[in-house]
Amino acid sequence: MSGVVDLAAVKAAQEAKTKAEQARAEAARHGGAGAVSPADLVIDVDEAGFERDVLQRSAEVPVVIDFWAEWCQPCKQLSPVLERLAVEYDGRFLLAKIDVDANQMLMQQFGVQGIPAVFAVVAGQALPLFQGAAGEAQIRETLDQLVQVAEQRFGLTGLVVDPDADPGAQPEPALPEGPHDALLEAAVVALDAGDFAGAVQAYRNVLSDDPANSEAKLGLAQAELLQRVQGMDPQAVRKDAAEKPADAEAQIAAADLDLVGGHVEDAFGRLIETVQRTAGDDRDAVRRRLLELFEVVGTDDPRVVGARRALARALF
């Protein structure tokens, strides 16, 4: 639930959001084709089906996990509220119920210390929401934030719900495959396997035929970033950067590590400060790398918007 998946989700956020919105519109035009029943918004999950029912589904909809047990009285108060809200939110999230007595491994994996405990998985990433009793107002506020983050950062607009759909039916894909889907899928597979050179080549193959393909552009920026940091000695890179604050190459390498480690603001701030300290070709190299990192995170991300303003101030 960590590693390459979070960068992969971020870099394709806008494209995923667009595709999801198109899928919802297409399903509506076809009378609910590709839709799920309201009954399918609440599912029971065990260890055997966790990858399929939670991790894989989290690529299309935020999955809220309710850890509960039959003997837990607060769980019996919380669970019906979550189930009702899952239907009310109309496919904006999927509720997965996990019985801790029957699924001790999952309980340990998430670090659950007591129940009820509620987590979410978004694009393969797990995050805690709240533990113990919670009022409905607090639950709604938390769910609203989850749905907003899932849509803005990962492009997840949720499932299409049709009251007339058959419960348990598998929705059919609403959109046909595009001409480059096979190459893009090959690039993602290569990323997941750690074959960054292969991913770079696959994205370049798409761009050679379709130079304006935004998903390939963003994917290439991500793959090149991961390829650059592969084999780096993090301690040596950070030591070099600390000792040479005005050295463009040292700061660029450290910024790459910052971003891969999830420290987005640190990466941006480091390069903006380096722009202020350098001049000529060094300054231009730092500026170009910063723009590449903007592409990795996503140009609509608020952190990118703020960093662009800071870069403009540093340059002019």
From TrEMBL:
Residue ranges of domain Thioredoxin in the record: 14-148
InterPro entries, alphabetized: Thioredoxin-like_sf, Thioredoxin_domain, TPR-like_helical_dom_sf
Pfam families: Thioredoxin (PF00085), TPR_19 (PF14559), TPR_20 (PF14561)
CDD domains per UniProt: ybbN
GO process terms (BP): cell redox homeostasis; response to stress
Regions that span the bilayer: none
Protein name: Co-chaperone YbbN
